[in-house]
Amino acid sequence: MIEVFELVKSFDDNQVLKGVSTTFEKGDTSMIIGSSGSGKTVLLKCLLGLFEPDSGDICYDGRHYSKMSTKEKRNLRKEIGMVFQGGALFDSETIQSNIMFPLKMFSDQSQEEMLDRVNFVLKRVNLENVNNKFPAEISGGMQKRVAIARAIVMNPKYLFCDEPNSGLDPQTAIVIDNLIQEITDEYEMITIINSHDMNSVMEIGEKIIFLKDGLKAWEGSYKTIFKTDNKAVTDFVYSSNLYKKVRETYIKENS
Amino acid sequence: MLGQVFKRPQKKSIFWESLFKEIEELGTKSLGIVAFISFFVGGVVAIQTALNVDSPLIPKYLIGFATKRSIILEFSPTFMSIILAGKVGSYITSSIGTMRVTEQIDALEVMGVNALNYLVFPKVIAAVLFYPFIVLTAMFLGIFGGWVSGFATGLFTSDQYIVGIRMDFDPHLIRYAITKTMVFAFVIATIPSYYGFYVKGGSLEVGKASTKAVVWTSIVIIVLNYFLTQMMLG
């Protein structure tokens, strides 16, 4: 379990996170949503250890981040897999080298074992025969799948995804969503997704945290988001006519 | 930054792999331009010296002597370093800067990799170890270029030039040139890495950072050249 306690983070005079507290459970796919500038990315980067919070703490399965030494923090990162918005694949390396990199860096496996593992995770994300291609030679959806493969190659305990569906067509976005959820269930990970994509939120958001102006304005799941009367959430989630109609239908059917 | 750069590499095999890659990128790929410039500048230095030494009282072998000294003391270590600051410095800033703006450095850090050590340390070691070799090559080709120019223009004979370059050989000058080169190599690897690693924004900012890195690397080389010369020869 990841527990977040009263997290505060500022940049110069701009306080982006104003005391966010929440928990993320093992085996759950959690979504952080909110409008631009609400603090989603900053919260995710604090959880990843890329930003040091000004105050508050994060507890990873009982280990308090604020009490960790630099070495412990670096070791913690080996338990983290991250899928970046743009993929963040090493563009001068082949797909195989990209996925093999964490194994080469942190494991003592032989080349053969590493190659087996790379092929296994590539197969797991439904990609084959791309080992020797470069990131620029494959599609955006395939790049996202490679990024997922690289994120899970070390069997992480925690998987973080920043806008995994951005720039993807609706069909591919669903494939990526389902893949993330399947992997989360299969490996019993804690998966935290930062997303704007309401389809994803409704499909796989077992836990949803809504941020507004650096504060947690609402917390629930894809089941409860239809019922909530929280104005900030309804204004954000049901801003389009399509979602308004979906919500009305849901309420009618369940009343 | 330097504290993180000079830590023990997390995995030796990866460090060696990166080191040889950087020797190729920063070193061997620069040999062509260094050889080309050195050969022709050596020729020009010899011709200009010959044209300016028109007094019958000044022996012709001084052309070889002056060419050798100019090339060993200044042209090869300092001006080759400035040329390398332009070529290699912009490559380092743009490659690391692009990795920064496309979140590749964040990806390394999230994996638990010391990104500064992984990206910068092999560059520093490759430059400091390989640039003296490049500068020695530049010295040889510069002096050779001077000899060829005499041959081509007829301003001095081969014998006169060879007597000049063999005259009053001082090994301390080579030590001075190599020491300068190693210091400049360190500057060429670190300043552009700093600008690339801490760039913020997009491709335009990476371009601006590359320009700044080349300018500051050149300035630092020129200033250090002054102090090193005063310390070692003054």
How does this model look, in words?
The complex is a heterodimer of chains A (255) and B (234). Chain A is an alpha/beta fold. Chain A has two domains: 1-79 and 156-229, Rossmann fold (3-Layer(aba) Sandwich), CATH 3.40.50.300; 92-155, no CATH class. Chain A has helices spanning 40-48, 70-77, 95-106, 111-124, 140-152, 170-187, 198-204, 231-237, 241-254; strands at 2-11, 14-24, 29-33, 55-60, 63-64, 80-83, 158-162, 190-194, 207-212, 215-220. In chain A, the strands form two sheets. A six-stranded mixed beta sheet of chain A has the order 6-7-8-3-9-10. In chain A, strands 2-1-4-5 form a four-stranded antiparallel beta sheet, covered by helices on one side. In chain A, a hairpin with a 2-residue loop joins strand 9 (207-212) and strand 10. In chain A, helix 3 (95-106) packs across helix 4 (111-124) and helix 6 packs parallel to helix 7. The radius of gyration of chain A is 19 Å and the shape is globular. The relative contact order of chain A is 0.16. With 234 residues, chain B is mainly alpha-helical. Chain B has one domain (2-233).
Provide the number of structural domains of chain B. 1
Give the overall form of chain B.
elongated
Classified in CATH, the superfamily of the largest domain in chain A is P-loop containing nucleotide triphosphate hydrolases
Give the oligomer, counting copies of the same chain as homo and different chains as hetero. Answer: heterodimer
Give unreliable regions of chain B as ranges. none
Percent of residues in β-strands of chain B: under 5%
Residue windows where pLDDT falls under 50 for at least 5 positions of chain A: none
Calculate the mean pLDDT score of chain B and round it: 93
Strand % of chain A is: 15-25%
Say how many strands of chain B there are: 0
Name the largest protein-protein interface in this structure.
A-B, 23 and 16 residues
What's the β-strand tally of chain A?
Answer: 10
- The helix/strand class of chain A is alpha/beta
Following the backbone from N to C, one meets helices and strands of chain A in this order, namely EEEHEEHEHHHEHEHEEHH
3D shape of chain A: globular
Look at the helices and sheets of chain B and give the structural class: mainly alpha
User: What is the string of helix and strand elements of chain B?
Assistant: HHHHHHHHH
Number of domains of chain A: 2
Outline the biggest β-sheet of chain A: 6 strands, mixed
